[in-house]
């Protein structure tokens, strides 16, 4: 065949079209798509989970597609029959939404080698939890000389104009509100005390961040000195030399289990299962526990060591004691009403 | 004759077909879907009705969010015009090399991402930012002022971020004005101020209106700058839509808010358009 300009163009266009619309080339299935979170989670998964998965599957094709939980749900919801994602990662609130909207498959527990080794709280049949997120008090040790010991310290007069919180769009913000309610005699179903407490905190607030990521930058800029904060988010700041410390308040750390799910109608169910197995395996979890990731393992076969043992808990029994898990099924029922109320009441 | 001689003033409409198809698929269709979605009465789907619109329009809080967003746009546009006009004027009056420098300075921000420009403002307005540090250093204040997370901060940051959208049309409009007109005006005895008010300003009206239109539309829809400088306690329409759609997965309400916002913006845009048409009549008179 002669290489004319026309045949070259045709080939190029066809290849281009095949690339732009992978659905056209049905001979080749698309790679496994794993929607992880952005930031430190993406880095951790790229560095540890992806290589482990490649090893376990003989270099199967996969891509990471980092995005927020809620965006994952929106994306899958928009194309339920041919979802663009195979494995989703969710905070407790969105996880329940995804399950309620029938977007995820039950996890094939009986096939799993690691499911039974997970701590009870992480054993979720619709999608097990490969790790936790832990929320405590973060503060700047250069400006806050006596380390805080309780959530109540945020209300101390010396922190006037220096406290940061996030609004209820985030899991962090909502979880903190529930904890506030509990401190003042409320619960997941009675949030009034939290709003009252927040009203009292208002003069102290330097900022209401739009998301937890923004909270981290606020520490960096010296805009706030103390806030409820995510243990892992703090580690990145610390690694960059920002003066910031994390303590578990005496009321206990708020813990969110982060669950991992096989998307319903995924064409890559087998690979999805293998990726999740890798995420639950003691090898991967032990590696993710080390510096610089410091991710809390959920597999009881992993002995907690290092920085985690020092700041959080020395073993899984202590985790069960120190970590507070909230009832997100109840929270979800009223979350929109709370957000609306927050919108109205916490304005400056 | 007409059959043999091609009329050069009419073009084949087929040339626009690819663009029209693109618009139909990627703009009109989603808009229709959005509209249909906004008439769903509950997020799970099923029934159709006006519930979402009633919820929004019957709620003073939601209307307040809409009002403060539209008002924010007015403030930003006014500030941008106030600061942008002298820049465009300077560009017009400068020698060739300086024109190039001014144009580069105006265009430079467009080459960096909005996120970067906004973060610069976070640094400038922060407690230990440039503004507070200099004021503290000069002994004018004792404690840092709260500049970030205030509406003033949002207005200033948005004005800077959207500045090129105002300055570029102004430069074009001012460039079209015959310099002899100003000379003629002063020969006839008008001072600088009078020349500006009676000759330059009216002739630059089309540029002002185009600039205001672009700045206004960009300012009220600027999700990133609004949320980063405004923080989590200041609610404007883009964040309101995001909150309902993403966090709460309440798509019908989010769609209804979007439609209402779209209509509100269209109303403002048509007011600008009417003004534009009036100004053209004015300048031609």
UniProtKB/TrEMBL annotation, chain A:
One of its GO terms (biological process) is polyamine transport. GO terms for molecular function: polyamine binding; thiamine binding; thiamine pyrophosphate binding. The keyword Disulfide bond does not apply. One of its GO terms (cellular component) is outer membrane-bounded periplasmic space. It comes from the Bacteria. Keywords: Signal. The keyword Magnesium does not apply. InterPro entries: Sperm_putr-bd (IPR001188), TAT_signal (IPR006311). Gene3D superfamilies: Periplasmic binding protein-like II. PANTHER family: ABC TRANSPORTER SUBSTRATE-BINDING PROTEIN, THIAMINE-BINDING PERIPLASMIC PROTEIN-RELATED. This is ABC transporter substrate-binding protein. It comes from Azospirillum thiophilum.
TrEMBL record, chain B:
The keyword Transmembrane helix applies. Residues 66-272 form the ABC transmembrane type-1 domain. It is found in: Cell membrane. One of its GO terms (biological process) is transmembrane transport. It holds the Pfam family BPD_transp_1. PROSITE patterns: ABC_TM1. GO terms for cellular component: plasma membrane. Keywords: Cell membrane, Membrane, Transmembrane, Transmembrane helix, Transport. The chain crosses the membrane at residues 15-39, 70-90, 102-127, 203-231, 251-275. Its main location: membrane. It is a multi-pass membrane protein. The keyword Membrane applies. It comes from the Bacteria. Belongs to the binding-protein-dependent transport system permease family. CysTW subfamily. This is ABC transporter permease. It comes from Azospirillum thiophilum.
